Amino acid sequence: MEGQPDQAVMLAVREGDVERIGVLFDRHHRMLFNFFLRLTANRGLSEDLVQDVFFRMLKYRQTFQAGTNFTSWMYQIARNAHIDQARKRRLEIVPDDEAAWDSVAGTDVDPQERLEQAQEIRLLRRALDRLPVEKREVLVLSRFQNLKYSEIAEVLGCEVGAVKVRVFRAVRELGQIFFELSGERAS
Fold first, then answer.
1. Is 56 a member of any domain?
2. DSSP 137
3. Which pLDDT value is given to residue 179?
4. How high is the pLDDT of residue 86?
5. Residue 97 domain-assigned?
6. Is residue 98, in this structure, part of any structural domain at all?
7. 77 and 134 together in one domain
8. pLDDT computed for residue 108 by the predictor
9. Of 57, 32, 55, 56, which Cα lies nearest the Cα of 45?
10. DSSP string computed for 7-56
């Protein structure tokens, strides 16, 4: 079953072979961790949320239907876990880890260019942290998790056109915040 598509593995889990959830965990825990880390900027919280997602996948396994896009279903659960966590905490999450952004900077550049990239990444991270969670979420799903607009539409329960508009608006607002933070004026 290791080589089977995610949908087939999840159907086996739904039918009672709950140990197969380990296959899905092995395939997707890093991707989910990165999703949460970029949303929360908190490594410990992100690890907890990943565990919560897989717990919920087991708990709600009967809701997974044949023909369902597994990735979209998983991100719907992840999104709900994040929303529930935010409601419980009601606190501003303070970033504790630069690792969420390490993969953005290239490593094969000269030290001065690397320093400039690191400064821009810090500014970008601060700008992203200032976005409302709905806009941050759509950017993380589209730009960092590389989900297709159709998959994001499934996750958010809206039309593809609405996703495109949300991404456009989020990118525009992110750019404005970034330029404000960098002392430049957006034109």
1. yes
2. H
3. 86
4. 82
5. no
6. no
7. no
8. 56
9. 32
10. HHHHHHHHTT-GGGHHHHHHHHHHHHHHHHHHHH--HHHHHHHHHHHHHH
Q: How does pLDDT run across 106-129, given as a tens digit for each residue?
A: 445 577 777 777 787 788 888 888
Q: Rounded distance, CA 21 to CA 38, Å?
A: 24
| Residue 67 in domain | yes
Instruction: Measure the CA–CA gap between 11 and 70, rounded to whole angstroms.
Output: 10
Q: Which two tokens stand for residue 23?
A: 């296959």
Which residue has tokens 């087939």?
A: 8
Q: What is the pTM of this model?
A: 0.70
Which parts of the chain sit beneath pLDDT 50? 1, 91-107, 185-187
Which residue pairs, CB below 8 angstroms and at least 24 apart, start in 151-154?
A: 151/69, 151/71, 151/72, 151/75, 154/69, 154/72, 154/73, 154/76
- Whole-number pLDDT of residue 9: 96
Domain extent, residue 168, equals: 109-182
Which of 60, 89, 118 is the endpoint of a domain?
A: 89
Q: What is the CATH number of the domain that holds 55?
A: 1.10.1740.10
Contacts of 33 (CB under 8 A, 6+ apart): 46, 47, 50
pLDDT the model gives residue 49: 95
DSSP annotation of 186 = -
Packed helices 6-14 and 70-89: angle between N→C axes, nearest 10 degrees = 70
Contacts of 46 (CB under 8 A, 6+ apart): 33, 36, 37, 40
